[in-house]
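Problem 12. The chain below contains 325 residues. Write out its predicted structure in token notation.
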Amino acid sequence: MERGRRSNGMLPLLALHAVSEYCRLGWKPPVTAGLLAANTLIYLRQPAFVDSMLPTLHEVLFNPHLILKHRDLKRFLLSAFYHIDESHLVYNMMSLLWKGIQLETSMGSVEFASMVAALLGMSQGITLVLAKSLLFFDYGRAYYQEYAVGFSGVLFAMKVVLNSQSDNYTYIHGLTIPSRYAAWAELVLIQMFVPRVSFLGHLGGILAGILYLRLKALYSGRDPLTTIVSGFSNVLNWPLRVVRNLCGFRQRQISGRRTIGGRHMNTPSIWTCRACTFDNSGWLSVCEMCGTSRDDGLSSVGSSNQSHDLSLEELRLRRVERFGR
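Solution.
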């Protein structure tokens, strides 16, 4: 495999499209961005230290015979993140960008990350089982010896998950079909137009998506993989939280009846207005809501009773006078 491959022009277009998509989003899905970056850097084998750490393409090609013969987990797991050429990479990454943004935005990053990990393992595993099973029927020797790489299996599984509850229709090469069957139509059409692609890999992805949905329907609680991913994320974020706390980066905002981002002991004492019961910062001497003077023992009892007995109309007039509306 070449070290530090150069782009022939498609990768800059992918980068431009990804940046434009993320710029228009209020919340930037981090897992999708990470997957895009990982696949691209593995293909480019850059920066230089990455090249020395990564196995070559031929060492990770998905081959059922070699995986079962040598128990080669490297081929089983890493083959999904390698791509043959730039067009192969860009096509898959454009599909990942579109599907990932929608799924991660709706599911959340932790659940999306656990889903991708589950779909990766299931799609690769189902493909392996299909290739081995065909041998029992004295068929499929070519599939058992087939070499394949790419993220397509996971993308087919994600397509099944994304369209599982959709009642819309989609267009695929001029055909109008229900979106929930789009993955099956794409499986057939791709095989017709690009016969060299891995049919079992794509089929394994579709079956993995169906299996994932069935398992999610049977298990109502939080799945163990999501819990593991969440715990791992908390461990990675722990040093950052410690630094923020030590440097005093925690933002405190007092609003209404609660303090956001900090405890009361770390802020000036909170006092409650006797007139309108609004919680105010200890820095204020008059109520932020109605303008009544703070009654903390500094004011006379008479004024306290007077403010406590204010009518709603008087409170409204004080607020109008204070805020000018």
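Discussion. The longest helix spans residues 109-136. Students who got a different answer should revisit the alignment rule from Section 12.3.
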